[in-house]
Amino acid sequence: MASRLPQHSTLRRTLPVTASGFIAVGWLLLQALVALPPALAQTQSTEDEFTYGDFLEKVDEGQVQQVDIDPERGIAQVRLKGDSDADEPRQVLLFAGDGRNPELIQRLRQQQVDVEIQSPGSGGAIAWFAANTLLVVVLVFGVLLILRRSASGAGGAMNFGRSRARFQMEAKTGVQFEDVAGIEEAKEELQEVVSFLKNPEKFTTVGAKIPRGVLLVGSPGTGKTLLAKAIAGEAGVPFFSISGSEFVEMFVGVGASRVRDLFKKAKENAPCIVFIDEIDAVGRQRGTGIGGGNDEREQTLNQLLTEMDGFEGNSGIIIIAATNRVDVLDSALLRPGRFDRQVMVDLPTYQGRLAILEVHARNKKVDDSVSLGAVARRTPGFSGAELANLLNEAAILTARRRKEAVTMLEIEDAIDRLTIGLSLTPLLDSNRKRMTAYHEVGHALITTLLPHSDDLNKVTIIPRSGGVEGFTQSLPNEDLIDSGLYTRNWLLDRITVALGGLAAEAEVYGDMETTTGAGSDIKQVTTLARQMVTLYGMSDLGPVALETMDSPVFLGRSLAPRSEYSEEMASKIDQQVRAIAHHGYNRARHMLREHRALIDRLVDRLLEVETMEGDEFRKLVSEYTTLPEKSFAKSGATP
Ligand code: ADP
Ligand code: ZN
């Protein structure tokens, strides 16, 4: 259930990157094909709402610092006083002939503005020419690259049959059990494998059979590879590794010959560990998939099974495989004598995260003021790999800021960076920024006012990479997260919070002025509401499970296993989902309507400071209304 964690921050996004990237590329191509004259092409791209009127007004107010006039294109580049050098100058479309308009020039001179007039034929046209040449070069380069790739693909085909060994061997992994933290149960279970590798006689003399294959099951980044390496490290035996996807080649027979190679080498080096990552890539249930299955994969899998059966007695080779999808594995793999031992490697709990952070903080300079406990509390749902990455990011930030040691500030920033994106420079004051502020305040206020929702951690309108214009972040309640049990109340409040952004846009700007910025919120809401109806029995349809817990995978055991309900039921489900979403939305709008004055106040403050911490936000709110008693009020239980 942990993997189904609802997201704890609500983002406001512009169009998805791919979509806008697509549009941008399309536009570029169009520009190249139609070859618009420079003036037109340029004016179309001006999206700054800095009009000629604004410009004159700023001139008269003495706010203009510098003006570059391009009479050819009828455009002026304007820098205001107070604009930083890094900012793009604002573009103003001048009226025809205005570039040489002596009146305008005089007006500018009067205000002692720095005026420059570009000589005709320079600048714009050259830039335009350069841009187009560049475009052509990029296109040609791209085509060459594609040609090269397919050529090397053909080269690959020449190599057919001559399997290049794609596995790695490490004589000494150098990883010990103490480097693996937070998955104590798994470690304990594997301890016996280590003892076997160290002195097999102890087991064989009493006639004990040692498992040949161990399957480590868990989501990516939980430390499965690390654990396998630690076993080899502790036992002091070589470590062979290969990824399941390496077996799956275009040509029949290559995978099987790789398996043979691998085991040949392993036998020569026994005792040893053979580690197969992503075994589901090769070990899926046979005879399914489109077109009745994949010959190559089946051959590879058969070869693997043959090799495993082929070790007589105790050959000293232990195969450890990793996957996060046992359910799709071929049952032949799981039979006795093969991967009959399964060890779960879960996402770490609070204690586990703390232990992992301690491991990775060992080789970093961390300031005494940093409480790793607090970091562990801030990172529910993070895997071991993500925690390691987090500390590394924080260390990089620390170096960049020329500090001596990592402080909580860098860690907080690294968390945001990993969960949301790089922070960009704030927008200039504009309607868009104000609207983002209303949107975020909508989320933040509702999360603050609802009794079952998480505590607000912060709200910000500093944009982030990936088109995020701002976000509201709440501090998940640790008990809830680690137990993985959410109440119906919590879910309904969560849905209301997620719709608070859209509701605020609608309340303030009107139903017709809402934006696409709420897209990811709505997606989140739909997923949650659907789960409430189809998985958790939290709707009028009652306690029936209408979907299986595992998200369906296209090439799983069978093609369309999931919906075991009729068309009629499907439409009832849709109705219920809609009802839940509507209920949340109406509730959000009512709440926001009642607090309109407070919202304006919060938005003004947010526009001023750009980021507000939860405490400051709550303080402002409490001046207008009483804060609710949170239903799970920070229990003393969380360390
Ligand atoms: P998996 O194989 O489960 O995808 P990995 O073992 O490749 O995950 O983990 C990648 C990295 O993340 C490791 O090299 C290690 O630095 C870190 N890591 C993951 N889990 C743990 C853990 N339980 N304890 C310490 N470090 C971990
Ligand atoms: Zn939002």
Describe the structure.
The chain is an alpha/beta fold and 639 residues long. It folds into 4 domains: 48-118, Signal recognition particle alu RNA binding heterodimer, srp9/1 (2-Layer Sandwich); 168-345, 3-Layer(aba) Sandwich (Rossmann fold), CATH 3.40.50; 350-419, Helicase, Ruva Protein, domain 3 (Orthogonal Bundle), CATH 1.10.8; 430-622, Methane Monooxygenase Hydroxylase, Chain G, domain 1. 49% of the residues lie in helices and 11% in strands. The chain has 23 helices and 14 strands. A 6-stranded mixed beta sheet has the order 6-8-9-10-7-11, with helices on both faces. Strands 1-13-12-14 form a 4-stranded antiparallel beta sheet. A 4-stranded mixed beta sheet has the order 4-3-2-5, covered by helices on one side. The longest helix is centred in the N-terminal third of the chain and has 35 residues, at 124-158. The two termini are 23 Å apart. The chain binds adenosine-5'-diphosphate and zinc ion.
What would CATH call the homologous superfamily of the largest domain?
Answer: Peptidase M41
Biggest sheet features? 6 strands, mixed
Level-2 CATH architecture of the largest domain: Up-down Bundle
The set of bound ligands, ions and cofactors reads: adenosine-5'-diphosphate, zinc ion
How many domains? 4
The helix/strand class is alpha/beta
Tally of extended strands? Answer: 14
Low-confidence stretches: 1-7, 16-47, 150-163, 551-561, 633-639
Q: Span between N and C termini?
A: 23 Å
User: CATH topology of the largest domain, which one?
Assistant: Methane Monooxygenase Hydroxylase, Chain G, domain 1
Give the rounded overall mean pLDDT: 80
**Helical percent range?**
40-55%
| Molecular shape | globular
Helical run tally: 23
**Main β-sheet, spatial strand arrangement:** 6-8-9-10-7-11
Question: What gyration radius follows from the Cα positions, in whole Å?
Answer: 31 Å
CATH class of the largest domain: Mainly Alpha
Strand content: 5-15%
